[in-house]
């Protein structure tokens, strides 16, 4: 590889310069070296780079003419298919699948690119409640990251258990509350009929407990609007208000205090969410 700089090869692939790559006049010795070429820090192969950038014709050249391996993982254990899917390069995904790329359906749900997930689900022999090492299903993962349309697709196609729990006993609702995904919470409760006050783990946490523990003020308001029991206690007798206070989340604690007071005071000085306006900027992502 003395005559050709590895960094130049990676730059050509990153730029999608197929003509430039061909112009190097790669012989058998150089081609053999290219098959083993990896970026030191990321562990990416040339196929990873082409797939991530969506350079379909160049990726096909690497696979079909240079015979590079499409299943080599990088240092994050991602294969070229994961890179193409995460960037929503639909044609690259199709090409890799046609060449026999193996599909990990659990990772596909995380990406949130609906059209790509649809392709992957058609090819992967998906089991509705397939779990990872932590007991998390694709349905849970999608909602935990706010990908409601992906979760809806999974539900429509495969009918996963909407109340399935992970290894710790937390359901999709609790995971969504933990990450402040209000849209996911509304989907579970209003469309799928999940109980807003359902309990998780041996500690008997509700979604409200999780939202308070993580400091998600807007999620607390969302759960309240969906009928959450503000006085529910966990296995140690703690309310969500106590969890918020213990975690140092003053805005959450105040939101819960204000909510409890609303039956006894005028709401004229409150926003439509039931909070003083100055508290809303401290709220969690929806």
TrEMBL record:
Coarse class of the protein's main subcellular location: cytoplasm
Signal sequence residues: none
Entry-linked Pfam families: Ank_2, Ank_4
Keyword NAD: no
InterPro entries assigned: Ankyrin_rpt, Ankyrin_rpt-contain_sf
Keywords tagged on the record: ANK repeat, Cytoplasm, Nucleus, Repeat
Localization (cell): Cytoplasm; Nucleus
ANK repeats: 42-64, 76-108, 203-235
Region (Disordered): 267-286
Gene3D superfamilies, sorted: Ankyrin repeat-containing domain (1.25.40.20)
Gene Ontology cellular component annotations, sorted alphabetically: cytoplasm; nucleus
Subunit structure: Interacts with AARS; the interaction is direct.
Function: Required to prevent the misactivation of serine (Ser) with tRNA(Ala) by promoting the hydrolysis of Ser-mischarged tRNA(Ala), thereby playing a role in translational fidelity. Binds directly to the catalytic domain of AARS/AlaRS and captures Ser that is misactivated by AARS/AlaRS, preventing the charging of Ser adenylates to tRNA(Ala) and precluding Ser misincorporation in nascent peptides.
Protein name in UniProt: Ankyrin repeat domain-containing protein 16
Species this protein is from: Eptatretus burgeri (Inshore hagfish)
């Amino acid at each position: 590889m003395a005559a050709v700089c590895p960094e130049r090869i990676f730059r050509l692939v990153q730029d999608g310069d197929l003509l430039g790559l061909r112009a190097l006049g790669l012989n058998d010795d150089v081609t053999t070296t290219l098959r083993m070429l990896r970026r030191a820090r990321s562990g990416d192969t040339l196929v990873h780079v082409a797939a991530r950038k969506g350079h379909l014709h160049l990726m096909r050249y690497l696979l079909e003419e240079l015979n590079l391996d499409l299943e080599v993982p990088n240092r994050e254990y991602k294969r070229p298919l994961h890179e193409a899917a995460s960037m929503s390069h639909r044609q690259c995904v199709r090409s890799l699948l046609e060449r026999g790329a193996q599909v990990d359906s659990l990772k596909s749900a995380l990406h949130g690119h609906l059209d790509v997930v649809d392709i992957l689900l058609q090819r992967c022999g998906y089991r509705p409640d397939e779990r990872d090492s932590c007991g998390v299903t694709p349905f849970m993962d999608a909602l935990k990251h706010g990908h409601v349309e992906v979760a809806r697709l999974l539900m429509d196609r495969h009918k996963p258990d909407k109340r399935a729990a992970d290894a710790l006993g937390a359901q999709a609702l609790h995971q969504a509350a933990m990450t402040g995904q209000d849209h996911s919470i509304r989907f579970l409760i209003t469309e799928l009929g999940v109980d807003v006050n359902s309990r998780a783990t041996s500690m008997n946490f509700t979604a409200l407990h999780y939202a308070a523990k993580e400091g998600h003020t807007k999620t607390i308001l969302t759960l309240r609007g969906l009928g959450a029991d503000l006085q529910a206690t966990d296995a140690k007798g703690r309310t969500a208000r106590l969890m918020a206070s213990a975690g140092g989340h003053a805005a959450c604690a105040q939101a819960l205090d204000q909510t409890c007071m609303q039956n006894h005071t005028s709401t004229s000085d409150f926003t439509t969410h039931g909070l003083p306006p100055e508290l809303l900027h401290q709220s969690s992502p929806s």
